[in-house]
Amino acid sequence: MSSPESSPYKDSEASPHEETRKTEWPLWEVFIRGQHGLSHRHVGSLHAPDAEMAIKNARDVYTRRNEGVSIWVVEAVHIAASSPEEKGSLYEPSNDKVYRHPTFFDIPDEVGAM
Amino acid sequence: MSDPLFEFCCRMGDNTLVLGHRVSEWCGVAPVLEEDIALANTALDLIGQTQLWLGLAGEVEGKGRDADKLAFHRDVWDFRNVLLAEQPNGDFGQTMMRQFLFDSWHLMYLKALMSSSHEQVAAIAEKSVKEVTYHLERSTDTVIGLGDGTTESHERMQKALDRLYPFVGEMFIDDEVDAAMVEAGIAPDPSSLRAEYDAHLDTVLAEATLTKPEDDFAHKGGKTGVRHTEHLGHMLTQMQWLQRAYPDATW
Amino acid sequence: MYAQMIKSTGQGVKSLDEMEPEERAFQERINAGGKIEPKDWMPDGYRKNLIRQIGQHAHSEIVGQLPEGNWITRAPTLERKAILLAKVQDEAGHGLYLYCAAETLGVTRDDLTRDLLSGKMKYSSIFNYPTLTWADMGAVGWLVDGAAIMNQVPLQRTSYGPYARAMVRICKEESFHQRQGYDIMMKMANGTEAQRRMAQDALNRFWYPSLMMFGPSDKDSVHSAQSMAWKIKMNTNDELRQKFVDQTVPQAEYLGLTVPDEHLKWNEETGHYDFSEPDWTEFFDVLKGNGPCNTERLEARNKAWDEGRWVREGLLAHAAKKRAAKMAAE
To answer: Which of A8, A57, B132, C161 can bridge C35 by disulfide, Cβ–Cβ 3.0-4.6 Å?
Structure first.
């Protein structure tokens, strides 16, 4: 590739990359709803200066192969997550409620599709 | 003058070819990964549009030249892109300013082409409009963001605008090819789009806190092929090298 | 592979009985094929190793853009240009996914980038070799991506959830990469005399560096044993290298090209090809920074980073101003 013209600002901003200022763009989580009407699904993350650019970046990064028709982004720091220690209390109570699943019920074949 | 429709298709295709090539030079070296990926998408769209325009040019010409033949086997004086497209990338600001100035014209022109009397022209325009709408959104955001950002980014964007503005005028100059296209109902007079372009430019530049140069001087010679800048020749030596060095090979 | 010389911080593999209850639960989960997620308890060594491994993998994708990017502006047809650009773009995407996976472990992308730019963190040795002719675009896709896939496919089952999910996405996207490389090789190998020479030359230059991608033999390494117990390494280097050779030799034959190894031959007994080891001295030289392109690659990355700083800052400053204006208006 040919390289961009050399910087006229040689000794100012574009000099060595020591940690003078924090310039990293915030991290965003990306959710995409695909073609087939399913819910938005978490597909990954990216960096962007603000929400508008995050959506644009998501379009460029995560829909390169027609993956989606709708994009949500949320700044990663705003995601509240359950903690792993609560796993038992949150999820196990549903383990013994098998009647919530259709396969719990035996329906005779003669009845047809149900 | 050769067939004006052929000229017209070459103008459209050479614009996208040359600009797409320039944008592709950023691949792997953009300021941040997300921008790297976005620029590649823009370049890919432009290369795709090139295949359509130059493909149509070859058909119109009817001498058996396809898009590749036209892209890789013509020399500088046969290229019909506007001078703006061949300007070097410079820093990222110059690249995005060039993109913004071009996209703004490109989208307006393509929208007008959607109602072209020529079916294939209208079809290519319709496909391209979707892509270029996004290019313009993105380049507009970037010009505003960097114009308004830090002192340094503002200065760099103003410098880019000053450097590139003299290449804006060429996109709106009417000539005999344009006249023939208007006559045939294929394309509008470029000059008819100028007022809308200026209004759009003023809005965006105001938001970007940038000042449009007062001097309206316009370099010209690209779309007629009469006098390109020196930059195009160097680009072609790279772009066309394999095809020229091994003319009997297929790739 | 893309993370070739990961030194584990572990002291050899502990048995379950030697572990404290948390670590034991952690290891049992891995043994049962379960996933470890960002907020789960994990041993320090696991975290550190993963950061290094995923980081190296990400760096390899990013630096790996350069040797192929070298030919985008010289691609011989519009279609080849588009395909190559899309492929190199994918590599940027893969780097991005992997950095994000690493970020779930408590580092930032900028931290990792700084370590790459200073030379503290490594990337795959393969990207320190030059791409000299168009046939190299074929060889890189065919051999380098082919070798990478050997490692990446099993990593889809790695124990760390975000890493596994990134690999699933990467493998899905990578599927066209090796094919496009082989497609170029077919054109070249069946082309003019000059094209055939280019194709053979590319194979000659990329064969041994591709074998090096799997790293030196690690069958007796305690580091590898620990990584395998943690399921962040799924196969030994030798297994993968053998698999690569077995798969690639018939593909070279189909092209009518000669693998540059006079000792290469099919072994009826083992059911595998016997082949010569690459020159490991060269490998360590390249890792130390003495490969043909180490200097250029790091220079290119540093230049991109330094010259991009004002852009990253500018857009961030604009976002902050917009936010402030919005809050003032409310």
So the answer is: C161
Domain boundaries, chain B: 4-245
Which DSSP string corresponds to chain A? -PPPPPPTTTTTTTS---SSS--PPPEEEEEEE-TTSPPPEEEEEEE-SSHHHHHHHHHHHH-TTS--SEEEEEEGGG-----GGGHHHHHGGGTT-GGGSGGGS---GGG---
Domain that holds residue A56: 13-111
Q: Alpha-carbon distance B202 to B212, whole Å?
A: 8
Q: Is residue B112 within 8 Å of B187, Cβ to Cβ?
A: yes
Whether the predicted pLDDT of A12 surpasses 50:
no
Q: Report pTM.
A: 0.91
What confidence score (pLDDT) does residue C9 get? 53
Q: Do C76 and B27 touch (CB under 8 A)?
A: no
Query: Does the structural domain C16-328 have CATH classification 3.40.50.300?
Result: no
In our burial notation (b when 16+ CB lie closer than 10 A, e otherwise), range A7-34 reads: bebeeebbeebeeeeebebbbbbbbbbb
The CATH number of the domain holding residue A20 is 3.10.20.520
- Write down the CATH superfamily of domain B4-245: Ferritin, core subunit, four-helix bundle (1.20.1260.10)
Measured in degrees and rounded to the nearest 5, phi and psi for residue C131 equal: -105, 115
Q: Domain segments of chain C: what residues?
A: 16-328
Confidence grade of residue C222 (pLDDT, cut at 50, 70, 90): confident
The answer to the question of residue A18 being in a domain is: yes
pLDDT in the model for residue A100: 76
pLDDT level of residue A20 (50, 70, 90 thresholds): very low
- Measured between CB atoms, which of B29, B134, B145 is closest to A1? B29
The answer to the question of residue A8 being in a domain is no
Residue showing tokens 């190998």: C189
Contact C213, C57 (CB under 8 A): no
Task: Read off the pLDDT of residues C2-29 as tens digits, 9 standing for 90 and up.
Answer: 767 665 555 678 899 999 999 999 999 9
Name every residue whose Cβ is closer than 8 Å to that of residue C23 and which is 6 or more positions away in sequence.
Answer: C14, C43
Residues C35-80: tens digit of each pLDDT: 999 989 999 999 999 999 999 999 999 999 999 999 999 999 999 9
Number of domains in chain A: 1
Read off the pLDDT band of B137 (50, 70, 90): very high
Two tokens at B127?
Answer: 């496909």
A45 beta partners: A29
What residue in B sits closest to A57 (Cα-Cα)?
Answer: B34
How far apart CA A51 and CA A43 sit, in angstroms, is 17
List the single best residue of C59, C79, C89, C100 to mutate versus B (max B Cβ within 10 A).
C89
Answer yes or no: do A4 and B28 touch at CB < 8 A.
Answer: no
Tell me whether residue A6 is in a domain: no
For range C97-114, the mean pLDDT: 96
CA C172 to chain centroid, in Å, comes to: 15
